[in-house]
Design brief:
Layout lengths: L1 H16 L3 E7 L2 E7 L3 H10 L7 E9 L6 H6 L6 E9 L4 E8 L7 E3 L8 H12 L2 E3 L28 E6 L4 E6 L23
Parallel strand pairs: 2-5, 6-7
Antiparallel strand pairs: 1-2, 3-4, 4-5, 8-9
Length: 206
């Protein structure tokens, strides 16, 4: 029954969104649609305002880096060589259905997607998080700045090519009497586990 409901929702989305809908993916009773980055604001407004959908709630918004994902995404969805995506999870309380929307940024070097804060204000901090962690820029965002890392942080820590050690480290300098940043310093060391055994460990009782 649930699958039939999602199949009907898919047909309705195709009829209303038309060419703005690049593709659909129904799996494990979850429906995902793909749209162009340039259309996300218009599509979001249609999904919220059209009474057939009434997606009044944005549950979540997150970024994704497909750098090491492989070619499966590109081949199935004609998104060849696209690296960064934004995923939107929508809920219609009135119609009791959910939807996942995926948008891939056009430019890998400078990923840009329009903000949807004017449609769902809760997207504000979600978009700031994706900007901070993935470097995805949301145009028309009212206050796009880092939200989890420090103001002087270099890079975007959720990108697949971001080094585990980071680029810089922070410490307090007693001479300058302030916090400073410096290149990461890691001293190589050999760790030998300490093993303690009982005196008669392994002996069989007679």
């Amino acid at each position: 029954m649930h699958t039939t409901h999602l199949e009907n929702l898919t047909k309705s989305l195709r009829g209303v969104l038309g060419e703005k809908l690049i593709g659909t993916h129904l799996r494990y009773d979850e429906l995902t649609i793909n749209v162009h980055a340039d259309d996300i604001f218009t599509v979001s407004k249609m999904l919220r305002d059209n009474p057939m959908f009434s997606f009044d709630t944005l549950i979540d918004l997150c970024g994704i880096d497909y750098l090491m994902y492989g070619d499966e995404l590109s081949e199935k969805n004609n998104f060849r060589n696209r690296r960064f995506a934004v995923i939107y999870h929508l809920l219609s309380i009135d119609r009791n259905h959910r939807l996942r929307v995926r948008v891939l940024a056009e430019n890998n070097d400078f990923p840009v997607v329009d903000s949807i804060t004017d449609i769902w204000p809760v997207a504000n901090w979600f978009e700031r998080e994706a900007f901070d962690l993935y470097g995805i820029v949301f145009t028309y965002h009212p206050d796009l700045r880092r939200i989890l890392t420090d103001y002087g942080f270099i890079g975007n820590p959720f990108r697949k090519d971001f080094p585990i050690t980071g680029y810089v480290e922070m410490r307090y300098d007693a001479e300058q009497k302030r916090v400073i940043y410096q290149p990461v310093t890691i001293e190589p060391r050999e760790i030998t586990p300490l093993v303690i055994r009982e005196a008669n460990y392994g002996d069989c009782e007679s």
